[in-house]
Amino acid sequence: xxxxxxxxxxxxxxxxxxxxxxxxxxxxxxxxxxxxxxxxxxxxxxxxxxxxxxxxxxxxxxxxxxxxxxxxxxxxxxxxxxxxxxxxxxxxxxxxxxxxxxxxxxxxxxxxxxxxxxxxxxxxxxxxxxxxxxxxxxxxxxxxxxxxxxxxxxxxxxxxxxxxxxxxxxxxxxxxxxxxxxxxxxxxxxxxxxxxxxxxxxxxxxxxxxxxxxxxxxxxxxxxxxxxxxxxxxxxxxxxxxxxxxxxxxxxxxxxxxxxxxxxxxxxxxxxxxxxxxxxxxxxxxxxxxxxxxxxxxxxxxxxxxxxxxxxxxxx
Length: 316
What we know:
Elements: H1 2-28, E1 31-35, E2 38-41, H2 42-55, H3 62-88, H4 97-109, H5 114-123, H6 128-149, H7 157-171, E3 175-185, H8 189-206, H9 208-215, E4 226-231, H10 237-244, E5 255-257, E6 260-271, H11 279-309, E7 312-314
Antiparallel strand pairs: 1-2, 1-7, 3-4, 3-6, 5-6
């Protein structure tokens, strides 16, 4: 009898928990906005907020949530408008090379691959499929805009020539350096002096490459400290003054940079010869950039038009 009584209690408790869970789910996944015949749920908004904060590497706290909430909702509304326009115009949604390259760059930004990135999203309770669909529709939207406005892209040839000439003029004085580095953390004056002497000693014994692999705390350590070719325009004035005074094969005196001590080795250097520059390729790049700038203007204008024609209702 007691056993039957316990079973009855468990049964009713189960019903209560189920009903409570259902109610909780409804509360936490309610409709917060309607965009035409599409809806935006609270689940989508929460996911978008967390995604924005995650991708921008900001902390998930109430202050940041409050700050980003309007931006997230506006972005979701724009996404729904774009999605509707893409579907209406029968633009194919596909996981094309642009989507793959975009995701690959995103993974690299977090020093991981697809599997690792999905794990990171899962750990932060972020829906990867929503993110993926958003990217797919964004690239489909770009395809639509190009289809609609490609005949309206008129470029000023003289502007292109002027920009090309400016580029060529700058390149004449451009010097590039092939560099390698050893980076160690700064601790205290006495400890730093000890570590500096140890690095110098090891460079003499093992060479710069092996010393970098063994001691450097920079990601370049895996490549023997090599950081590749760097042009003079991208170096700070302080580092440039160090590098310019080095002979090929020479190692700089250690210098402090933020909380680190840095040794630089000049592996090679060269001046860009204007004859070696593919001028036609540079011109194509300028034209492509200017076309993209115009397409962005057309994109924003088109979005504004359909937003003005679409009934948007907020439930909050």
